[in-house]
């Protein structure tokens, strides 16, 4: 009898010991997993010493997830107040250029925890009807953010629209302006390709690029064709320089952003006075798409829309040569003004 009681006691102690060890191992594993789930990008620099102003995991998840609900108008005023959220005017704007990589740049900058992007192109400064609605209308189009974050919007039509520089200057004369450019001929063909796809989708016919880019009467480059005119970067930049010093502009290499994005993003971080937070971890190459995709954390990845990276139609080499020769003096002046040289032919 005594022997059976002792055996039963030993069995109970064994079970309790096993449970204790199992619980301990679970806690160790749990702590380890929480460690890995800490925010990728704590904020320091102008936002406080590193380690003191880190965004908590819950706040980071809130920014990436629940802010979407606020943008849809599903939040109460009390929820907004409790989370200390505001709609701020942008402190930086990607003003152009069309088909230079403005969407890719905006999405990549949104990897930084101190940046919040406006999801849609607002077209406030280039659209007379929108501009007449006033600055508060514009502010209400901005996403909710924390006070220490900066809001960035992009509308590439801003760069080529004559009224825009003065209008932005009146809003904020010290705003930072981002311009992303690609090799001018490639950009013009990309511009044409996007319009062509839209025409084909509607079963409409469209001229070949060569017929639009070259004036049939003079056999010279057709500067009235918008895709060509947009690629004369220096002409548009000179208009902006009447209002803003060159120091308020940062030129992003759109071609390099495709093949080697991190160095370009690091230059933008520096220009915006942001602490360096975007790393190679946040960018991974998708061989199927042929582009870099974005990694916000261990569970949230994002690739750009499938419309990015359209296959360009074949263009007569003599037309390409003529266009590159035409753009060359404008490119040289652009290098001189901006202080940045590109390997454009």
What would you say about this model in short?
Keywords: Disulfide bond, Glycoprotein, Golgi apparatus, Membrane, Signal-anchor, Transferase, Transmembrane, Transmembrane helix. With 345 residues, this protein is α/β, with parallel strands linked by helices.
SSE blueprint:
Layout: H1 2-36, H2 57-71, H3 77-82, E1 86-87, E2 92-96, H4 102-109, E3 115-117, H5 128-131, H6 135-140, E4 144-145, E5 150-154, H7 164-171, E6 176-181, H8 184-201, H9 209-213, H10 226-230, H11 233-240, E7 249-253, H12 254-259, H13 261-271, E8 283-286, E9 291-295, E10 301-302, H14 317-338
Parallel strand pairs: 2-5, 2-6, 3-5, 6-7
Antiparallel strand pairs: 1-4, 8-9, 9-10
Keywords: Disulfide bond, Glycoprotein, Golgi apparatus, Membrane, Signal-anchor, Transferase, Transmembrane, Transmembrane helix
EC number: 2.8.2.-
Membrane topology: Single-pass type II membrane protein
Q: Can you walk me through this structure?
A:
The protein is of the alpha/beta class. The protein has a single domain (85-338), classed as P-loop containing nucleotide triphosphate hydrolases (Rossmann fold). It has helices at residues 2-36, 57-71, 77-82, 102-109, 128-131, 135-140, 164-171, 184-201, 209-213, 226-230, 233-240, 254-259, 261-271, 317-338, and strands at residues 86-87, 92-96, 115-117, 144-145, 150-154, 176-181, 249-253, 283-286, 291-295, 301-302. The strands form 3 sheets. The chain has a 5-stranded parallel sheet. A 3-stranded antiparallel sheet has the order 8-9-10, with no helix packed on it. A two-stranded antiparallel sheet has the order 1-4. Strand 8 (283-286) and strand 9 form a beta hairpin. Helix 11 runs parallel beside helix 14. The chain is globular. Residues 18-61 have low confidence and may be disordered.
């Amino acid at each position: 009898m005594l022997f059976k009681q002792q055996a039963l006691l030993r069995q109970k102690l064994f079970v309790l010991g096993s449970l204790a060890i199992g619980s301990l191992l679970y806690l160790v594993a749990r702590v380890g997993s929480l460690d890995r789930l800490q925010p990728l990008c704590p904020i320091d620099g102008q936002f406080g010493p590193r380690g003191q102003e880190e965004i908590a995991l819950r706040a980071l998840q809130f920014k990436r997830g629940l802010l979407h609900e606020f943008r849809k108008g599903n939040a109460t005023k009390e929820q907004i107040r409790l989370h200390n959220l505001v709609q701020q005017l942008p402190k930086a704007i990607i003003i152009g250029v069309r088909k230079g990589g403005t969407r890719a740049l905006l999405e990549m900058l949104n990897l930084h925890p101190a940046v919040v992007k406006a999801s849609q192109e607002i077209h406030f400064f280039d659209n007379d009807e929108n501009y007449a609605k006033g600055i508060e209308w514009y502010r209400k189009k901005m996403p909710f953010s924390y006070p220490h974050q900066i809001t960035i919007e992009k509308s590439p039509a801003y760069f080529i629209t004559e009224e825009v520089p003065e209008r932005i200057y009146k809003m904020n004369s010290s705003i930072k302006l981002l311009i992303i450019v690609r090799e001018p001929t490639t950009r013009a063909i990309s511009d044409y390709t996007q319009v062509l796809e839209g025409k084909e989708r509607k079963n409409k016919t469209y001229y070949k690029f060569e017929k639009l880019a070259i004036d049939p009467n003079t056999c010279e480059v057709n500067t009235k064709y918008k895709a060509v005119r947009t690629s004369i970067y220096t002409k548009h930049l000179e208009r902006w320089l009447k209002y803003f010093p060159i120091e308020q502009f940062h030129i992003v290499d759109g071609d390099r952003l495709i093949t080697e994005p991190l160095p370009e993003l690091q230059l933008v971080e520096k220009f915006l006075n942001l602490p360096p937070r975007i790393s190679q971890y946040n960018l991974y190459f998708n061989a199927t798409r042929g582009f870099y995709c974005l990694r916000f954390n261990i569970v949230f990845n994002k690739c750009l829309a499938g419309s990015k990276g359209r296959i360009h139609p074949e263009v007569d080499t003599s037309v390409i040569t003529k266009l590159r020769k035409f753009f060359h003096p404008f490119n040289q002046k652009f290098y001189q003004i901006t202080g940045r040289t590109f390997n454009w032919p």
